[in-house]
């Protein structure tokens, strides 16, 4: 087989590929392969090019045993760490050679890293209340066995911890459901102002306990749009509840509804719902990460208030499903404004 023909065949392989002969020199490489390991590599000894020991070993093993071998090539493409699965196959041409192909598994690696992080987070979040529960059970069986007053107090704390676990599991299931139907467009015709009124009504007891005044400013005319009313209620409940919980010291949470025929963000007819509080606000460093699962700007306070840190992650997925946008603005000390933009 001529070298030209060999180069032609290797260049037709749709993933990075290169070939090494019995003299351990690279005899062919396609364009993707050269992008991955370096230009001008044909004719060079492969070990000087593929410097990773496990890759060199897999190549040598394949040459020696004349059978397949397999390993991983770890690299960085400038923007991120990359992982390739390297398959070495013995070829009975040109006096015996190895064909190595590099299959990009970076995205699979990233997904499994995210899954590991997520599992670690969930376990950690569940363990905290669980540890508390176990501690109180011990106490109730031992030192507090005959102390009725202490028993009442402990049972109350235990109820709270169990509720926290229950909320966490509920939020996780909700996130799961929302994520799995993110691509299904909502179909329901709903009226936004009424939905906001009833959401505010159900949050009134919470607001009163916190000494927060709730206000709604909406146009007189009904505001109809296509959406999923249960999900949108969940969005506004979380945003208004956050306003009360974290911004309540400002004394008020204001909800404004603004409709426009040509919204700058949506480039078409849209409605904006602003949820404005006058509380301590959020530091700028936190803003881009607020919608990540379990991200809390003020972790101690959020936990104390019973937050799971999943609320805004759910909000983001629901708004995505509605092809809308979420904007967060905040000045430290002056409060926070969350704006939901929905296309009409
Ligand atoms: N209006 C606000 N003012 C100040 N901080 C806020 C405000 N809204 C949200 N945050 C911060 O953003 C974090 C994330 O909010 P998110 O709603 O996702 O979680 P949570 O309220 O802690 O939990 P959950 O909503 O599941 O009960 C909060 O923990 C809080 O630190
Ligand atoms: Mg919340």
Notable traits:
single chain, 344 residues, alpha+beta, Beta-Lactamase, Helix Hairpins, Heat Shock Protein 90, 3 domains, five-stranded antiparallel sheet, five-stranded mixed sheet, 10 helices, 46% helix, binds adenosine-5'-triphosphate, binds magnesium ion
Plain-language structure description:
The chain has three domains: 102 residues, Beta-Lactamase; 73 residues, Helix Hairpins (Orthogonal Bundle); 160 residues, 2-Layer Sandwich (Heat Shock Protein 90), CATH 3.30.565. The protein starts with a helix and ends with a strand. A five-stranded antiparallel beta sheet has the order 2-1-5-4-3, with helices on both faces. It is elongated, with a radius of gyration of 30 Å. Helix 6 packs parallel to helix 10. With 344 residues, the chain is α+β, with helices and mostly antiparallel strands. Bound molecules: adenosine-5'-triphosphate and magnesium ion.
Measured on Cα atoms, how large is the radius of gyration? Answer: 30 Å
**What is the string of SSEs from the N terminus onward?**
HEEHHHEEEHHEHEEHEEHHEE
Number of domains: 3
pLDDT averaged over residues: 92
Portion in strands: 15-25%
- Helical residue percent? 40-55%
Ranges where pLDDT stays below 50 over 5 or more residues in a row are none
Reading off the top of the CATH hierarchy, the class of the largest domain is best stated as: Alpha Beta
Terminal CA distance reads 65 Å
Strand order of the largest sheet: 2-1-5-4-3
Give the overall shape. elongated
The helix count comes to 10
Biggest sheet, open or closed, and with what strands and sense?
A: 5 strands, antiparallel
């Amino acid at each position: 087989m001529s070298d030209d023909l060999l180069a032609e065949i290797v260049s037709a392989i749709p993933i990075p590929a290169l070939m090494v002969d019995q003299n351990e020199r690279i005899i062919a490489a396609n364009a993707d392969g050269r992008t991955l390991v370096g230009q001008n590599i044909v004719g060079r000894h492969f070990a000087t090019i593929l410097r990773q020991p496990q890759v060199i070993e897999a190549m040598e093993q394949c040459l020696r045993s004349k059978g397949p071998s397999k390993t991983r090539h770890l690299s960085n493409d400038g923007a991120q760490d990359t992982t390739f699965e390297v398959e070495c196959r013995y070829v009975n041409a040109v006096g015996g050679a190895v064909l190595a192909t590099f299959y990009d598994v970076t995205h699979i690696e990233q997904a499994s890293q995210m899954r590991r992080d997520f599992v670690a987070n969930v376990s950690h979040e569940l363990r905290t209340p669980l540890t508390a529960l176990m501690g109180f059970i011990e106490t109730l069986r031992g030192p507090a066995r005959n102390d009725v007053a202490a028993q009442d107090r402990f049972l109350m704390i235990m109820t709270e911890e169990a509720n926290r676990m229950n909320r966490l599991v509920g939020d996780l299931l909700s996130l799961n459901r929302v994520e799995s139907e993110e691509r299904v467009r909502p179909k329901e015709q709903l009226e936004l102002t009424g939905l906001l009124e009833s959401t505010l009504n159900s949050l009134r007891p919470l607001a009163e306990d916190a000494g927060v005044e709730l206000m709604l400013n909406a146009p007189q005319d009904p505001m109809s749009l296509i959406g999923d009313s249960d999900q949108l209620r969940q969005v506004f409940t979380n945003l208004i509840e956050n306003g009360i919980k974290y911004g309540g010291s400002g004394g008020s949470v204001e909800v404004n509804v603004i409709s426009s025929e040509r919204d700058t963000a949506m480039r078409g007819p849209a409605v904006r719902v602003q949820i404005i509080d006058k509380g301590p606000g959020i530091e700028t460093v936190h803003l881009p990460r607020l919608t990540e699962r379990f991200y809390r700007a003020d972790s101690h306070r959020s936990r104390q208030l019973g937050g799971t840190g999943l609320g805004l992650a759910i909000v983001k997925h629901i708004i995505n499903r509605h092809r809308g946008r979420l904007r967060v603005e905040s000045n430290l000390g002056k409060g926070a404004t969350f704006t939901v933009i929905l296309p009409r």
